[in-house]
Amino acid sequence: MMDYSPEVFLNNIAQTTPFPFLIPVERAEGIYLYTPEGKRYTDLISGIAVSNIGHRHPHVINAIQSQLEKHLHVMVFGEYIQSASNRLAKKLTELLPPSLNCTYFVNSGTEANEGALKLAKRFTGRTEIISCRKSYHGSTHGSMSVSGNEIKKYAFRPLLPDVRFIDFNKMEELEAITDRTACVIMETIQGDAGVRVPSKSYMKAVRKKCDETGTLLILDEIQCGMGRTGTLFAFEQFDIVPDILTIAKAFGGGLPIGAFIADKNLMQTLTHDPMLGHITTFGGNPVCCASALATLEVIEKEKLLDQVEKKGKLIENLLKHPLIKEVRRIGLMFAIDFDTQERVEKIVKYAMDKGVITFWFLSHPNSFRIAPPLTITEEEIKESCQVIVEAIDRS
Ligand code: PMP
Questions:
Q1: pLDDT digit string (tens) for 166-216?
Q2: Is residue 129 in some structural domain?
Q3: Residue among 249, 288, 360, 363 whose CB has most ligand 1 atoms within 8 A, to mutate
Q4: Counting beta carbons within 10 angstroms of the beta carbon of residue 11, is it exposed (0 to 12), middle (13 to 18) or buried (19 or more)?
Q5: Which residue segment(s) compose the domain that 85 sits in?
Q6: How far is the CA of 2 from the centre of ligand 1 (A)?
Q7: What residues contact residue 17 under an 8 Å CB cut-off, 6+ apart?
Q8: Is 221 in the pocket of ligand 1 (CB under 6 A)?
Q9: pTM of the complete model
Q10: Which helix (H) or strand (E) holds 372?
Q11: Does 237 reside within a domain?
Q12: What is the CATH number of the domain that holds 171?
């Protein structure tokens, strides 16, 4: 017996907003979601940057099924040798620059950032953390402490001490990074600030300043990673390599898994003083690892990265409208700005009624996001953009 009762959803499941979308989802395939009544929705947001290869990709489903035949959870992270996590770690090491050769698997984006921040404090012996205004790094206490949206934070103070904020992409403010700083944490592309793309010279200056002061650079690619920007990782486009990389969301191909990745020598500090510097029960869950490996294989085999820029450009060209104030884009990651939040709400709601799902940003209300699966076809792009333009017309 299926249960899509809104009453149960609203009363027996924790609510996080006063106005949830309330779309009943029976199944999802490729870029589409289907309701029990058979209404089809185009998922232009990939479940918030997760379904980069579409929903239920057959290669991922096969990998999950064959892992199910072998074993599920057998032990906490870091004790037993499991093929799924071994193969995934090896693949990541092959794909990443040589200094990002050692992976700690965790359960989510926020946990990846928690682990990265702890690793930076432990390795440097310093406490100060520098982050950027308008950033989003997660909703647990540590990640929230380094997130830049004050409205989301004030009710939960006190948070982590010794956190300083600088403006993203502002060269002058890099002076704040000193030999007291354990780490700088930043999104390579700020996502929930409304898709903010930094200049290459800024990112190189961040790297340089960190090198000069012995500060570790953590790049959060939880939203912008896994091919979204046209390269597997966004940092590749800025000629820099972070000391610690954090990933999650699309990494798991639809299952929950995150990771923080660093050099073996750095990561090794979590094994002593104290031992078990970060502990997680489900980190490296074999089913999630099998799904993540299959996802990386799909991105490679289907040459998805080669298609991102062309598809992004097509959307950009189709979404020309006098009411649009600004479009910010990198690859298939878009923020579309309007004059008011009310207009954005009307557009998002109209498009949803017509079966096209877009969504808001956490910290930029005058804008909506588009971040479709990288597998979307040109025909599907044209159909969805037509609906969005109609929605803008009606706003
Ligand atoms: N960092 C960034 C850049 C994100 O976009 C998000 C999620 N929106 C997170 C961290 C937190 O990830 P999770 O929700 O998996 O904890």
A1: 999 999 999 999 999 999 999 999 999 999 999 999 999 999 999 999 999
A2: yes
A3: 249
A4: exposed
A5: 59-301
A6: 30
A7: none
A8: no
A9: 0.98
A10: none
A11: yes
A12: 3.40.640.10
